[in-house]
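Researcher: I'd like a structural prediction for the single chain below. Treat it as a standalone chain; there are no partners to consider.
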Amino acid sequence: MDPTDKTIVVTGATGLQGRAVTRHLLDGGWRVRALTRNPDGAPAKALASAGAQIVRARMEDISSVIDAADGAYGLFSVQPTVGSPGTAPDFCAEDEVRWGMNIAEGAQAVGIRHLVFSSVAGSGRHGSEVLPQNLVSKWRIEQHLAKLGLPATILRPVSLMENYTGGYALQGGNLVSGIAPEVPLQVMAVDDVGFITALAFSLPQEWIGRATDLAGDELTPAQIAAHIETAIGRPLPYVQIPIETIRAVNEQFAFAHEWLNERGYRADIAAARRIHPAAMDFRTWLQRTGAAQITAFLDAQ
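Model: Treating it as a single chain, here is the predicted structure.
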């Protein structure tokens, strides 16, 4: 498909996935309409400098979504989950679902011809096992897309490698999480999510109606910590947060960690590499961008 005269709307454009998707779409010759609630912020200005059209919109306001998406060919939809950086303290799972449904209904209202929704790996197993709330929320949005009959692609990435670059995982000179040190965890570089999203838009005949789990590597937390130590040249021990400590803060977070410890994403990494053979493993990601981001965060502490 020739993208030069077609516009893709990117929701959450100043977030991790939104920035990566915008960058790959612009590199591919698409026009990009980047939606943000703060057009005057530094992230939005950086996207504008790269060539994106910045439009103010709020996912909780469907009328603003409709206005922003009018006349576009495609739309990339991604919503924050509970606890995501930048969300209000009272942001809840029902907000996430409502925002995702608003985007879907706005896309339908303006006749979007291809919607790519960023879900999460494992959501397709709904009904066969009990899933954490964040997977159930994404599944509910997926179901709404299907109910509306939208021409959609569902991408289901696993945990992002970028989660290891900030305070979520780097605390007190340690790498921390609720995952047991020896349990394999699947991870994906956000840049590769952006690449595959742009690929899906360029090949609608292959991707509309398709749902795909995405993973680039699988390592235990102990292995992840060791790779980071080698890349940044300083100790970074792995410390598991007890599940009961997490449960004291949030029952759903605790169950999500138990699920990862016992079941996990189980994405087909080989299948993802057939789609994108150059997808980064964890060490490659560290070499390219991860180590520098981690070092900058630790140095700022």
